[in-house]
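Quick log. Single chain, no ligands specified.
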Amino acid sequence: MLTLKMLRDDPQAVVDKLKIKNFDARPIVDKVLELDALRRKLQTESDALLSQQKQFASKIGVLMKQGLKQDAETAKAEVAALKEQSTSMLARMEEAGKELEANLVLLPNIPCSLVKEGKGAEDNEVVKMGGPEVSLPADALPHWELAKKYDIIDFDLGVKITGAGFPVYKGKGAKLQRALINFFLDCNTEAGYKEVEPPVLVNKDSGFGTGQLPDKEGQMYHATLDDFYLVPTAEVPVTNIFRDVILDQNQIPQRLTAYTPCFRREAGSYGKDVRGLNRLHQFDKVEIVRVEKPENSYKALDEMVAHVEGIVNKLGLKYRILRLCGGDMSFTSAITYDFELWSAAQGRWLEISSVSNFETYQSNRLRLRYRDENGATQLAHTLNGSSLALPRVVAALLEDNQTPDGIVIPEILRPYTGFDIID
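-> predicted structure:
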């Protein structure tokens, strides 16, 4: 959430910067400033009323001692009338404050100076490419056909049990899932991230804290009876560990990693891009989260990008790294780098990771602060990244490693899978 101070100090700068995200902030900014002015006006008037109440109250005792009971009663009536006005004014202030907050949360995060203008994915900037070239035989199959051929993922059975987008992993397919989760977690913990195992249901405050609510409410599964939400990513519960927390100097930075199943409704997703593992409603993902001082957060972002790149390189997959343009960035992000794997069998790039810096946007909603060297509290910066999301990694692994004899498992994964080939 943007701070009110940002809008007070330079509202035009906020409007101009949010244009990079193709967001017209002017009506909301004007409304917020109007409500802020009203609230401050009411506060001034309320303070004046309180002063008058005190003046009349101090007179009452003096009048009573002087035997001027009628004057004292008149003064009491004045105090009662002032209290009634004050109560009404405080209610108006509270109402204005709530409306101000409701409008303020509608503003997305301001993109950092590295983010370029653009309307969508076609305007994203490729900043790096790597990994081996992929050469497949003419009869190469997409992963959904390979899954059926080797009986490792059953999409139809998932439809029977739940619905489309909920696959059943079987045999070596299930072991590959478990192997990747453990491999990713080991890579992260070896890099200094502390593993946690959070809940996969969160309350509304947690969804608000990381910015999923109210922006992505329609994309989250909602357990209405208890008013809980199924997590769309481990980012939500892990980052909320620090909600309403003030960290001391020796507690920052924080580096955490977690595995969770993730749940996304993906409403409105149709067509060829959703086949097989390309887009699911339930999938496994390992996440990394960092809490940093503002002056260190962009160095931390570079470290996270390099860390994810190192994992992809270990898997021996062809990849590219994109810096997202303003129009393709999330509501909460100040800057995002996406990782994509090349699917030779499908002839397309598959997104497997997003690494983002949110600066103070989430921490302001979370009330996550740290004490600086002077003992004053400051908003921290939060960052997170997929490290990694499994479905499209599995898709690329299956497709790019297919041979006439079967699907060859990358050497780095064999200690985790316990087998060298899927045949």
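The chain has a mean pLDDT of 94.
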